[in-house]
Input
Amino acid sequence: MRLIRSISVMNAYRLALLREGVRIGLVPTMGALHQGHRTLIRTARLACDAVVVSVFVNPTQFGPHEDFSRYPRQLKQDTAMCRDEGVDVVFVPSQEAMYPSSFQTGVTAQAVSQRWEGAHRPTHFGGVATVVTKLLNIVRPHIAFFGQKDYQQVVVVRRLVADLNVGTLIVSCPTVRDPDGLAMSSRNVYLTAAQRRAAPILYRALRAGETAILKGSRDAARVRHTVLMKLADEPLVQIDYVSVCDPDSLEPLTRIIGKVVLLGAIRLGPVRLIDNLLVKAKIKGRRAKSR
Amino acid sequence: MRLIRSISVMNAYRLALLREGVRIGLVPTMGALHQGHRTLIRTARLACDAVVVSVFVNPTQFGPHEDFSRYPRQLKQDTAMCRDEGVDVVFVPSQEAMYPSSFQTGVTAQAVSQRWEGAHRPTHFGGVATVVTKLLNIVRPHIAFFGQKDYQQVVVVRRLVADLNVGTLIVSCPTVRDPDGLAMSSRNVYLTAAQRRAAPILYRALRAGETAILKGSRDAARVRHTVLMKLADEPLVQIDYVSVCDPDSLEPLTRIIGKVVLLGAIRLGPVRLIDNLLVKAKIKGRRAKSR
Output
C-alpha cells in the first residue's frame, strides 16, 4: 500500500494505472474510518482493480461554528485499516495543496442543496461539491463509493457528476449500523453515554415510518407524523427535520407513490445525527401485508 | 474528419484516443469561425496528435438582453474550415444534451469574475466556467486553446482548471487582427460600415497606452488617461471601461511594475467590443527608448 500526500504524485500514479487499463475505485473520506468505510472499501475492491481511499478533513464543508477543529483525526489507525483491507493508495493531500491562497472556484448543485441539511448548514454542500469535484479530477476513478447515510450528499454528488459530465459512476452503499440501529458515523464519538443510549431512536422512528408505508399508508403527512411521534418518545431529542421526499429531487411529497426517502435529523445536546431510509411503496392491492 | 453530436459518442471516441496514447487538443468555440479560430486550430495541430473543435453557442453565458438568439450560426462553413485545417473531430452537442431539464450545477471562479466584463455581464463568467468545465470533462484534452482577445475569460478558465485540478493545460494564443488592428470576433458582423471604420480606435488607444509604458510611464492612472484620451477622438465610441491590471488577479494597479494587461471595452451603438494588450514594463534604466 502506498501513502501519497502530493496531488501531482497522485496524478502521476493515476495516469500510470489508467495506461495499464486498471479500473480505479475511489472511496473519499474525512478519515476516522469505521465499519461503514470498511464496507465502502470492500465494495470498491470487488468492483475495481485498484482502490484509492482519500483522507481529507475538508474545511470548506464545515460551517463557522461547526466541529472542524475537533473533528477526529487518526491517520495511523486509518492507514492500518486500509492496509488490512488491501487498499492500494491512501491519498492524504494537505489543506495548503487543496486550497492554496489563490483558490477561489466553487461548484454548486443548486436545487438539491437547498433543503434539509442545506437549510441547516448553508455552506455545507458547496464545500462538498467543490472538494468532490477536485478529488474526482485528481484521481479520475471509474467508480466512487459513498455511504447512503449521507443521503443528500449522494444526491448532490450524483447531480454534479451528471451536470458537469465528470464520467465517474457514483455508487451509494447501504448504511452500516451498530447492533441497536444507530448509523455509524465518525461523529458518534461525540455522544455522551446517555446520548448514545438515546441515539437509536432516530433509526427506530424512521423504521416506524417505513412500516406505515409498507402497511399501505400513502399520505406523506401521516407517515411524517408517525416518525415525529416516535421521536417524541425520547426526551433528549430535539428535532431538526423529518421529511418524506422524492429520492432524486429531494422535494417533499404529499402522496407516496413508488420509491421515497425518509430523511431525519435530530440533535442530542450539541451533537447532530442524520439518518434516512429508502422505501419502495408497493402498488395498491399488493401491499406488504397481503404477500 | 468526424462530426460528433452525441456527448457519449464524443466520450467513447476520446477514451479510444487516450488508450492509444494520443495527445488531444481542444479548441472550444461558439462557431462562426474566423481567422482567430484558424490560428487556434493550427496551434493545436502543432502541439497535439488529434484536434477537437467544439461548436456550441452556450446559452448560459449570454445575459437576458444579449444576442444569444441572433448570434451567427454557420455550421456548414465552420465544418468546411475545420476540414481544411485537418481537424479530427468537430463536436457539436445539442443544447438539450448539455442542459437537460434536471441541470442545476454551476461553477464559479469568484474574484477574477467580478470586475470588468463580469461587472457589465454579471452571469457571463458563471456560464463560461460551467460550460468549459463540461467540455473539458467530456473531451479530456491534454491542452485547450483559447484566444487572448477574451483575456478575462482565459484568466477565469486558468483559475478553475487550477482550482478544480482539471489537469488540462490552458494555452492562450495571440489575438488575430484585421489589417487595421481590429481584433477578430464573430460579433464584428454586427458593425455597420461607419461603426466598422471607427472600431480600430480601441486597438489604437490600447497601443497608445502600451507606448506610454514602454517609454517609461509607471503611473497606471496616467497610462489609463492616455488610452481614454485616444478613445475620446472617436465620437461614435462609448467607453465601458479601460483599466491597467495585474495580469493574473485582474486587480487594477496604481504603479506599473513588470507585466501588466491593458483592458478596454467600448460600445459602438449596440455593439460591444473588447480588446487587451499584455505589456511588460522594462526595469528602470533599461527603457525601450534607450535600447
Q: What stands out?
A: Chain A has two domains: 2-173, 186-281. Chain A has eleven helices and ten strands. Chain A has a mean pLDDT of 96. The two ends of chain A are 49 Å apart (CA to CA).
